[in-house]
Amino acid sequence: MKRIIIDPGHGGSDSGATYKGFFEKTYNLSIALLVKATLESRYEVDIILTRTADQTVSLKQRTDFANARNADFYLSIHNNAAGGRGFESFIYNRTVPAETVRIQNVIHDTIASTILNKYKIPNRGKKRANFHVLRETKMNALLLEVLFVDNDTDLNLLNNSIFIKDVSTAIAEGTAKALNLPKKTPPPSGTLYKVIAGSFTERENAEERAAFLATKGFDSFITSLVIKGTTYFRVQVGAFSEKSNAEDLVAKLKTIGIESFIYTEGTVEPPPPEPEPDKGYPIAGNSELAAAHMNNYARSVNPEAPLLAAYYLVHSKRYGIRGDIAFAQALHETNFFRFTGDVTPEQNNYAGIGATGGGAKGASFDTPSDGVLAHIQHLYAYSSKDPIPAGEKLVDPRFSLVQRGSATTWQALNGKWAVPGTTYGEMILTLYKKMVQSSITDMETAIEKLNKVLKDIII
Ligand SMILES: [Zn+2]
Questions:
Q1: What spacing in Å lies between the alpha carbon of 79 and ligand 1's midpoint?
Q2: C-beta separation of 324 from 314 below 8 A
Q3: Quick check: is 273 in a domain?
Q4: Residue 308 · residue 330 · CB < 8 Å
Q5: Residue 205 belongs to a domain with what CATH number?
Q6: From the CA of 106, how far away is ligand 1's center (Å)?
Q7: pLDDT, tens digit (0-9, with 9 covering 90-100), for 165-183
Q8: Whole-angstrom Cα distance, residue 247 to residue 105?
Q9: 161 with 33: CB under 8 angstroms?
Q10: Rounded distance from Cα 16 to ligand 1 centre (Å)
Q11: Residue 267: is its pLDDT beyond 60?
């Protein structure tokens, strides 16, 4: 594995260039830390810094340190001052290996074609100088003068965390290219634990987060993904094959006030669980009661009730729905066709379709038959995912608003047909059972009557 010494210029008592209270040493260290983080996260490489904090380190200490560590490359990061603006790079001004020149070319050109272009920064060229760190190092050495601390335009960039991240990435990529560093290969199979430090619908917000992370020494990048038609920009800080490493990073991010989460990739998604079947009594099925008994029951409460039972039985049969229970629902919705709610009798609306409360009158239908048909179609919308039967005209104006098949039992209409309606289906079924009981009584009376007839006729 190749070893690179990154040397953040100055530090400690040596501030480097200063201007308006800003110190060169600060920018040098920020960039160096980010170049290190970027290279380590993307490439197989060993990076050592000559300083990792605001420490005083002499020039001799730096080069002795590098020479003792058999490094392949020495990269010194500085910022400029005193007359001018823009970027320049330096190699030693005496005899150097061709390799050193080539490295300067690749890194300088990478920075020029990305950052200098993007930010319209003057390119001051590839230069040579007799600097200590270039002269005294035994390996290929390059010194970058990123920008001018004492130029207001350049200083604005240096104080822009997005620029710092961008320039560090460019330096890292240029270095990787120049040294032909092997890319880190993701684990070939198995699970990858990605640490996501923020998910945003606005890209700028994601970039701001990434820039903030950069100032704290975390290399990140932004991925986008679409969930239910909305694009999310995710800030990914790391990806690990070991979950504990991902958890460590989450904990580290927390210490700088960033809430992150682990997104597991590479696992086979289990198929979505089958939805639980609705509990309760099905809406689909046959009617059991006779029209006469149903009407009779309605009129036992409201003698003025219209005779609608036959419509319920006939229409519901074509849709495979229990029309007698639908009739019980109509009794509940209209208070036995007394229409004591928002719907008036002339609307022929027996199911409160579109009567959503607060005085909304809801839908109107031309005839009682159409009103009943709309009711049956509305139940069909809830209880089935099939299209309406061939040859049927759709009269329910709210059919398409129903999530098809979302309630296959009367109890499942709770909170759907009636909101909140926690006992809506139960009330309908209770009414229906009363109607069944009333039918039995009707029939018992009829049987008694017929038995009496049998008894009375003496042949
Ligand atoms: Zn300097």
A1: 5
A2: no
A3: no
A4: yes
A5: 3.30.70.1070
A6: 22
A7: 999 999 999 999 999 999 9
A8: 41
A9: no
A10: 5
A11: no
> Is residue 244 domain-shared with residue 324, that is, in the same domain?
no
Beta strand 87-92 pairing with 73-80 = unpaired
The alpha carbon of 144 and the centre of ligand 1 are apart by a number of angstroms equal to 9
Expressed as residue numbers, the domain containing 432 is 291-443
Q: Is residue 53 part of a domain?
A: yes
Structure tokens at 207: 């970039």
Residue 181: per-residue pLDDT:
97
- Catalytic residue IDs: 145
Q: H helices of 340-398, where?
A: 368-383
CATH number at residue 41: 3.40.630.40
Within-domain flag for 27: yes
Q: Which of 248, 265, 282 is the last residue of a domain?
A: 265
CA–centroid distance, residue 119 to ligand 1 (Å): 22
Name beta bridge partners: 400: none
Domain containing residue 416: CATH number: 1.10.530.10
433 and 382 share a domain? yes
For the record, the structure tokens of 424 come out as 């809506």
The domain total for the chain is 3
Task: Calculate what percentage of the chain has a pLDDT beyond 90.
Answer: 75
Cα(423)–Cα(418) distance, integer angstroms: 9
What is the whole-number distance in angstroms between the Cα of residue 9 and the centre of ligand 1?
Answer: 5
The β-bridge partners of 91 are 128
The rounded distance, in Å, linking the Cα atoms of 342 and 234 is 49
**One domain for residues 20 and 167:** yes
Does 250 score more than 60 pLDDT? yes
How far, in Å, from the CA of 97 to the mean position of ligand 1?
Answer: 24
Name the amino acid, one letter, at 59. Answer: L
Contact, 29 vs 93, CB < 8 A?
A: no
